[in-house]
Amino acid sequence: GDSVTQMEGPVTLSEEAFLTINCTYTATGYPSLFWYVQYPGEGLQLLLKATKADDKGSNKGFEATYRKETTSFHLEKGSVQVSDSAVYFCALSEFSGSEKLVFGKGMKLTVNP
Amino acid sequence: GAGVSQTPSNKVTEKGKYVELRCDPISGHTALYWYRQSLGQGPEFLIYFQGTGAADDSGLPNDRFFAVRPEGSVSTLKIQRTERGDSAMYLCASSLSPGGYNEQFFGPGTRLTVL
User: Fold this and answer.
1) B12, B25 Cβ separation under 8 angstroms
2) pLDDT of amino acid B101
3) Option in A32, A97, A103 nearest B55 (CB)
4) Is the pLDDT of residue A98 over 80?
5) Closest approach of B80 to chain A, Cα-based (Å)
6) Are A97 and B98 within 8 A, CB to CB?
7) Which residues, given as ranges, of chain B have pLDDT below 70?
8) Mean pLDDT computed over A30-55
9) How many other CB atoms sit within 10 Å of the CB of residue B40?
10) At a CB cut-off of 8 Å and minimum separation 6, what does B79 contact?
């Protein structure tokens, strides 16, 4: 079945550091790819998405590119802020009628001032 | 309200008891999903409703779990004869319609603890 493998944390960075969170996937078809974020005390929210190969999703300074050849969707940000401290989840959905999301395990990021 | 709401926010019950968890989706959203998130894990799909019908219940772990959405809006997840292993965060999400182009909006979750 479909699966998502992502870097596991926790990870601690200093403010303004570069961030990469690796994510690879296994899917039978041609999935849409997502990054969701969960800030402390809040619910899951969509950070960015890409629906076809070579698409780049971007939001709040974060970017991820859908790489079909390497089945990857790595999340990057050039300069993290304290407010980026959160848990990040990579996810996919396939065109299956339900488009249910399949999530990775999540990675907790802490950014120190 | 504007977002997905879930009640209760916390539920503590004893092993063997019956519980109901409620989800109010965003108005007008026809697709509704239930997920379960154990500590340190990503959410796992339980069931999907399109309108009133359960279109995909492949994620329900066993027949103690059941969910309804009788009027195509509010949904209730029902767990019979609860077990300690059912302890988790239960998340509800809704979207305008199914499809990878449509964002799923998540509620804050119900944290279930089975003693």
Assistant:
1) no
2) 66
3) A97
4) no
5) 24
6) yes
7) 1, 98-101
8) 93
9) 10
10) B18, B19, B20, B21, B64, B65, B66, B86, B112
